[in-house]
Write a structure and sequence with these properties.
Blueprint lengths: L17 E13 L3 E8 L2 E8 L5 H8 L6 E10 L12 E12 L16 H6 L1 H4 L3 H23 L3 E2 L17 E3 L7 E3 L5 H9 L4 E9 L11 E10 L3 H20 L8 E3 H8 L13 E2 L1 H4 L5 H4 L3 E7 L7 H12 L9 E5 L5 E3 L7 H11 L6 E7 L1 H18 L10 E5 L4 E4 L4 E4 L14 H4 L8 E6 L2 E8 L4 H10 L4 H15 L6 E7 H8 L30 H6 L9
Parallel strand pairs: 3-5, 6-9, 11-17
Antiparallel strand pairs: 1-2, 1-4, 2-3, 4-5, 7-8, 9-10, 10-22, 12-13, 13-16, 14-15, 14-16, 17-20, 18-19, 20-21, 21-22
Helix pairs in contact: 4-6, 4-16, 14-15
The chain binds aspartic acid.
Length: 584
């Protein structure tokens, strides 16, 4: 038997017991006549003790050769410690070793395996198995397991069935490129890895499964964006015989359950906001509503004066920064530099100080009098002591810029508290989105999303105005889930493909299986998918999803530990019919 107890288990009550422990040597302290070993496993650390008097001499000498991270097994008696360590649960006891076996030696690890390590990100990823021995990483993986388990518990209790869907499929468009897998047995043909199980979960509804979920890997070949993984995990869900309201209620339930079980927080309210309102008041379709600083549109009060920059702008919009009047001129100049950085891209920023005495001082005093500035304050909700920051320009751009400024200032002001949770449903997303590059409309969510019936006539006249029965669940400024009510009849689906620029033949070739299924009694249905990696990171109060993935890829999509992707040899290429025939 390798072990009778784990290294997190022994207490005063075990004193006198003979025990077997196994684990890794965290460190050896050598006082000459006395040796202590911190023995670590997943459950904790137990102190082993050997001394010259009580320990066999050869054993004593053997222990002196132990290095960090050796794997050992020790047998001994639990004794009470002379000096107790209140920082660890096993700190009241130690084990007086009578027998010790080295199960495996270890090279000196390339970084210290402690909570605060000296290892850089790249090195830790290269030796991720050592990184996982560290508490912070280990705890995150256990935390992720707990979240996944609560998801399964909750949904199973609500009669959802977890069904696996295939990974080797045909393209399911979610707006990214497919990863493809060549088929050896079908020369020149390829599978695509699922960007999501979207079409399969809809087919499960046609199959009568009624309530489905799956914790599932999805694959998207996207251009690199910070904190994105080419493979990631979704909590994918679908329900039949539902309207949008049913879905929102069902998944508010799941989110409330998770916040309660995992974070011990009860969130009663899941407010709703239309996409249009989110964009207008926060410049963003995933607003963080834990704090105010709502947008105030200033066109009516700031245009048609002498200030041409504003007169020429499509949108003039501002926010009130709480307490911002205390900023020095230098602070404000720095802020202006910040919005002018290429990542934000504003051309400049106008500001107005709101003095405590009710007067104003702006960077454009030449053009605006006190009454004008009082209007700005009113529209942005600024109070004495605040600073009004104003940007202007093309609507979409200026909203994105001001939203970036709002988030940055909130971060600096400590308004984004990790232990505060404010969920929000954003509803009524546009169905279509104009793509400048291809010069045509794309589905904003995906092509299976149902338009709002009352907006259907607009499909021909003003497609950009058509709203969808699509919704996102936002938590603290992050989109944690998104879904829609689906089209469930062949005619509407065909119409949709037509509007997305598919010829009937193309639609049939790619999605004929789904349209066929719609002819055999497809129930009304809808669903949602949550990004598990992000959700876990947010519930864990942290920013990066990599910290919650056992073996993540780096920002270039590489696994630096196994060194993938990698070249494959000629024979394999030939077998897969991928070898280029370079005829001269
Ligand atoms: N398949 C969608 C996605 O991955 C989610 C859904 O519509 O349920 O975003």
């Amino acid at each position: 038997m390798y072990r009778s107890h784990t290294n997190g288990e022994l207490r005063l009550a075990h004193v006198g017991n003979e025990v077997n422990l196994s684990g890794w040597v965290q460190k050896v302290r050598d006082k000459g006549f006395m040796l202590w070993i911190d023995l670590r496993d997943r459950y904790g650390i137990t102190q082993l003790i050997l001394d010259e008097e009580r320990t066999d001499k050869t054993l004593f000498e053997k222990v002196k050769t132990l290095g960090r991270e050796f794997v050992i097994q020790a047998t001994g008696t639990v004794i009470e410690r002379q000096s107790k360590n209140n920082n660890i649960p096993t700190g009241e006891i130690e084990v007086l070793v009578t027998k010790l076996t080295i199960l495996n030696a270890a090279k000196t690890p390339p970084f210290t395996i402690e909570d605060d390590t000296d290892g850089g990100e790249e090195l830790r990823m290269q030796y991720r198995y050592l990184d996982i021995r560290r508490n912070p990483v280990k705890e995150n993986l256990i935390f992720r397991h707990k979240v996944a388990q609560e998801v399964r518990n909750y949904l199973s209790n609500q009669d959802f069935i977890e069904v696996e869907t295939p990974y080797l499929i045909k393209s399911t468009p979610e707006g990214a490129r497919d990863f493809v897998v060549p088929s050896r047995m079908n020369e020149g043909q390829f599978y695509a890895l699922p960007q999501s199980p979207q079409t399969f979960k809809q087919l499960l509804m046609v199959g009568g499964m009624d309530k489905y979920f799956q914790i599932v890997k999805c694959f998207r070949d996207e251009d690199l964006r910070a904190d994105r993984q080419p493979e990631f995990t979704q909590i994918d869900c679908e329900m039949a015989f539902v309207e949008q309201e049913d879905i929102l209620n069902a998944f508010e339930g799941l989110t409330r359950h998770l916040l309660q079980k995992i974070n011990n927080i009860y969130v009663a309210e899941f407010p709703r906001m239309t996409y249009e309102e989110a964009m207008r008041t926060y410049g963003n379709d995933k607003p963080d509503i834990r704090f105010g600083m709502k947008f105030g549109e200033l066109n009516a009060v700031a245009q048609h004066k002498e200030f041409n920059v504003f007169n020429q702008a499509e949108l003039v919009v501002g926010i009130a920064v709480p307490g911002g009047n205390s900023y020095t001129r230098k602070d404000i100049d720095k802020l202006i530099d910040w919005v002018k950085r290429p990542q934000v891209g504003a051309l400049g920023m106008v500001y107005a100080r709101c003095n405590e005495d009710g007067s104003f001082k702006s960077s454009v005093d030449k053009f605006y009098d006190q009454e004008d500035l009082a209007n700005w304050a009113e529209v942005t909700g600024a109070k004495p002591g605040d600073l009004v920051c104003v940007l202007s320009g093309d609507t979409a751009k200026v909203r994105a810029q001001l939203s970036a400024l709002r988030m940055e200032l909130a971060e600096r002001l400590g308004l984004r508290k990790p232990d505060e949770f404010a969920p929000l449903w954003v509803v009524d997303f546009p169905l279509l989105e104009w793509d400048e590059e291809t010069e045509r409309f794309h589905a904003m969510h995906h092509p299976f999303t149902s338009p709002k019936p009352e907006d259907m006539p607009l499909l021909d006249t003003d497609p950009a105005k058509v709203r969808a029965n699509a919704y996102d669940l936002v938590l603290n400024g992050n989109e944690i889930g998104g879904g829609s009510i689906r089209i469930h009849d062949k005619a509407t689906q065909a119409l949709m493909f037509d509007h997305l620029g598919f010829t009937p033949e193309e639609a049939k070739a790619q999605f004929g299986f789904l349209m066929n299924a719609f002819e055999y009694g497809a129930p009304p249905h809808g669903g949602i998918a949550f990004g598990l990696d992000r959700l876990v990171a947010i519930l864990g109060g942290q920013e990066t999803i990599r910290d919650f993935i056992a073996f993540p890829k780096n920002n270039s999509g590489r696994d630096v530990m196994i060194d993938a992707p990698a070249l494959i040899d000629d024979a394999q290429l030939t077998e897969l019919s991928l070898k280029l025939n370079l005829k001269s």
